[in-house]
């Protein structure tokens, strides 16, 4: 968008000068023909030198105007006034001499007025051209201000988009150290307490998961089906550690599986559910990831709850939940990413006896309705 505006600023003065002097010469020729002073074709031929000189002088004045714009007003205005007066006198000379040559060489009826070189005639013609040049400079100045405003607006928009993308990227990559820290702790626990094969499986799955995570564009969105698959891969890693203690349920309806969501937006919620739900008890915990559509809204839920409602069947040691430290990084990260991508997306959390739910409410959209008119994807559109 910025480059076309640059081309517009460079070519607009030429187009403007040509149109302006076409209008000036046509108006002058029309008036001359209407008062019966000369034939149309002859008037057109005589006006060609004035047209060429007028266009050249207008472009010359505009270049000097741009160059002088950096000067203080006390230097700018006197210099522009002198330039306008000088160009007006020069074009008046071209006009009067061209008409004089036409009267002597081509059309003798013009001699009565064309040979008049009185000071009053010269000043009158020069004053007309002075107003023409002043009008031209005023319009070119207004056009340059408008173009610069649009250019600056486009540049600001591009910079804002780049800043938002950089911020989204930074937020996305905050997840990797956080997730990696927790997973390495899980691997360390498995090495100490579990079979060696389980630890090896966790390392292999972690490597595969991180490869897919790092290869993706952090600022883009993906279809929900792809996001759910990534979360399932993450949960496979944790299931090696927790085994039958973690019961995973994924419920993504066909009507929402092609909906767009920010890439890895569910990962910190799933990670929190594992850390604060499954890891805090030795009893079975059901971790459920679901998605549904409510008119034009997409509702994503991550819920962890005790696998049984009969608390009496759970050993006392299992019901004693050790307090785990939490930095709140995951939930804050999700809120910030939603704020960057949408104007009306929300993250709600609800604690209830035996469990916890994190719910994301965001606009429902698909790839088909997220492209702009030029086919370019928006910042939070799938790429």
UniProtKB/TrEMBL annotation:
InterPro entries assigned to the protein according to its UniProt record, in alphabetical order: Bact_2-comp_sensor_kinase, HATPase_C_sf, Sig_transdc_His_kin_internal
Keyword tags: Kinase, Membrane, Transferase, Transmembrane, Transmembrane helix
Segments forming domain Signal transduction histidine kinase internal region: 166-245
Statement: the UniProt record of this protein carries the keyword Nucleotidyltransferase: no
SUPFAM superfamilies, per the entry: ATPase domain of HSP90 chaperone/DNA topoisomerase II/histidine kinase
Transmembrane segment boundaries: 12-35, 41-61, 81-102, 122-142
One MF term in the entry's GO annotations: phosphorelay sensor kinase activity
One GO CC term, this protein: membrane
The name this protein goes by in its record: Histidine kinase
The species this protein was found in: Allosphingosinicella flava
């Amino acid at each position: 968008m910025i480059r076309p505006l640059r081309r517009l600023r460079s070519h607009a003065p030429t187009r403007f000068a040509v149109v302006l002097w076409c209008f000036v010469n046509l108006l002058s020729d029309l008036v001359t023909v209407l008062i019966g002073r000369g034939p149309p074709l002859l008037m057109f031929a005589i006006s060609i030198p004035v047209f060429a000189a007028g266009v050249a002088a207008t472009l010359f004045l505009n270049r000097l105007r741009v160059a002088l714009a950096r000067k203080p007003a006390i230097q700018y205005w006197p210099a522009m006034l002198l330039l306008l007066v000088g160009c007006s006198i020069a074009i008046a000379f071209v006009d009067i001499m061209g008409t004089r040559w036409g009267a002597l060489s081509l059309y003798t009826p013009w001699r009565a007025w064309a040979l008049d070189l009185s000071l009053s005639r010269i000043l009158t013609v020069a004053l007309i051209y002075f107003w023409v040049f002043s009008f031209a400079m005023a319009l070119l100045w207004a056009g340059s201000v408008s173009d610069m405003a649009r250019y600056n607006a486009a540049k600001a928009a591009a910079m804002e988009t780049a800043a938002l993308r950089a911020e989204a990227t930074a937020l996305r990559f905050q997840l990797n150290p956080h997730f990696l820290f927790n997973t390495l702790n899980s691997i360390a626990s498995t090495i100490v307490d579990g079979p060696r094969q389980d630890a090896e499986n966790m390392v292999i799955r972690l490597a595969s998961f991180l490869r897919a995570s790092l290869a993706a564009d952090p600022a883009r969105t993906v279809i929900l089906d792809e996001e759910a698959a990534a979360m399932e891969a993450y949960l496979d890693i944790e299931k090696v550690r927790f085994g039958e203690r973690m019961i995973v349920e994924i419920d993504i309806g066909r009507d929402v599986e092609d909906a767009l969501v920010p890439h890895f937006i569910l990962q910190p919620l799933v990670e929190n559910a594992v850390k604060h739900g499954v890891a805090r008890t030795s009893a079975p915990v059901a971790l459920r990831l679901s998605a549904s559509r409510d008119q034009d809204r997409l509702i994503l839920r991550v819920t962890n709850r005790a696998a049984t409602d009969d608390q009496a069947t759970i050993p006392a040691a299992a019901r004693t939940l050790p307090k785990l430290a939490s930095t709140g990084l995951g939930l804050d990260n999700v809120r910030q990413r939603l704020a960057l991508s949408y104007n009306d997306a929300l993250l709600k959390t609800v604690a209830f006896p035996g469990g916890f739910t994190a719910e994301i409410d965001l606009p429902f959209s698909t790839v088909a309705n997220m492209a702009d008119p030029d086919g370019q994807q928006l910042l939070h559109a799938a790429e």
